[in-house]
Amino acid sequence: MKREYALDDIIAAISTPMGTGGIGIVRMSGHGCIALADELFIGKQPLMDKPGHTLSYGKITDGKGGEIIDEVLVSVMKAPHTYTKEDIVEINCHGGTLVTRRVLEALLKAGARLAEPGEFTKRSFLNGRIDLTQAEAVIDLIHSKTELSRQAAVNQLEGRLKQAVREMREEILDMIASIEAVIDYPDYDIEEETYATMEEKANALHSRMETLLAGADRGKILREGLQTVIVGKPNVGKSSLLNWLLEEDRAIVTDIPGTTRDTVEEYLNIDGFPIKIVDTAGIRQTGDLVEQMGVEKSKAYAQNADLVILMLDASRPLEQEDKEILSFVEQKKTLILLNKTDLNQKLSLAEVKEYTDSRILSLSVRENIGFDALIDALKAMFLDGRPATAEDALLGNTRHKDALFRAKEAMAHCLETIANRMPEDFISMDLQDANRALGEITGDTSDEEIIDRIFTKFCLGK
Ligand SMILES: Nc1nc2c(ncn2[C@@H]2O[C@H](COP(=O)(O)OP(=O)(O)OP(=O)(O)O)[C@@H](O)[C@H]2O)c(=O)[nH]1
Ligand SMILES: [Mg+2]
């Protein structure tokens, strides 16, 4: 892989969030950054003379002999046992936008370069301390919203995905090597026995990839939350349900059908299960252009949901619109709610059952009846009630999933090639495709553009 990144300069950035706080940290990485800090630092002892991983008290100026900016504590970390594998200096100053900015400016004036978002982590990757999956885990960890997604990110940061991918790649490379050995002796025909062992190995790899991919959807749910979309015809109480779950008046509720025009998205945390809940415009035929657009959006959201909550109004008989929505979500994992049971019942549970195999709950949002049963049902539907496992967390990222999918396709093709007893170099080509796709996950075979795109998702100073 070609790497043309500059790694020989000193990068600097403010690593703490902008705004007022107790402490602000300005961070530098790169060969020579300790000497650079010494130019601005006034303390008992030059930082250069300090051992690695120590903290020094002193003052920071805006240049040699210049004005004192702040009283600081400076951490000096010496290569290679640092975040970037390079020398790192972190200046802990008093929090506040102005102080950290002035310290950063002083460092830039003294010769450091402003770091790009994620550049510290990128250096860690380029210097071989972590692979791409671990770099991505750093972003996930920063953005994790629940305990479950945090655990998933930590597993990835520990290198579990990297390990799994490396194991598969090694097996593939072994297979390629043994094939190449046969190719080198052209007088030898590949033997039936060789085909059989190849087939066995390829099969094992293929099914391992399949298992990992099956866990991918679960991993995504762990990281991003279960995408739950509330649909139904107008006025059944969808927005009321959203407010009920959030315990706040988030969406507008009126008795006028067609109140919600656009989707409303919120994030719920039910006993540690992350759930992203979306309230949508009631689905019906309408001449109103804006409402029609909302209806289209509702349908699109329902199509992409992990879980659809279909709401029906128990105080009205089942109408054509309800039936259409029921058939529209037939293929989706669905929970059906029969709302407004406090009113005169025109629609029974038994009647709804005729149209669906999905689970049905009766409730009244207005009278606050059925809340606990609903929460229990949501929890049971999260990962189908099965506890999250380390395997699930391995593959939560779309980029990883896509690459693994291509690796699996290549393995499937390889199995076909073997079954047809094709010449060995064809088998080798399939294996190389699989190997390349797997290497993209860890960053061993990715091109620069993809790597850059990953790091731009980072915040400044990380
Ligand atoms: N009696 C009764 N009324 C309810 C219940 N839940 C909601 N409502 C009422 O039903 C009406 C419609 O509620 P919304 O939550 O706005 O309904 P919606 O499905 O979001 O409607 P659209 O946004 O138009 O699609 C409001 O007047 C609510 O107060 C319930 O359990 N019982
Ligand atoms: Mg609504």
Explain what you see.
The chain has helices at 33-40, 97-109, 119-126, 132-143, 147-157, 160-183, 192-224, 238-246, 289-304, 320-328, 349-353, 371-381, 390-393, 398-419, 424-442, 448-455; strands at residues 11-14, 23-29, 41-43, 54-61, 68-77, 88-94, 113-114, 226-231, 264-270, 273-279, 307-313, 334-339, 359-362. It is of the alpha/beta class. It is flat and about 85 Å long. Helix 6 packs antiparallel against helix 15. The two termini are 24 Å apart. The model has no long low-confidence stretch (mean pLDDT 90).
Q: What's the CATH class of the largest domain, please?
A: Alpha Beta
Q: What is the name of the CATH superfamily of the largest domain? A: P-loop containing nucleotide triphosphate hydrolases
N- and C-termini, Cα separation: 24 Å
Helix content: 40-55%
Bound molecules: guanosine-5'-triphosphate, magnesium ion
Main pleated sheet: 7 strands, mixed
Q: Would you list the SSEs in sequence order as H and E? A: EEHEEEEHEHHHHHEHEEHEHEHEHHHHH
Strand content: 15-25%
Overall geometry comes to: flat
Proper CATH architecture of the largest domain: 3-Layer(aba) Sandwich
Please identify the oligomeric state.
Answer: single chain
Helix/strand class: alpha/beta
**How many individual β-strands?**
13
Work out the helix count: 16
- In the sheet with the most strands, the strands line up as 3-4-5-6-2-1-7
Catalogue the unreliable spans.
none
CATH topology of the largest domain: Rossmann fold
Tally of individual domains: 3
**Mean pLDDT over all positions:** 90
Rg, Å, rounded: 29 Å
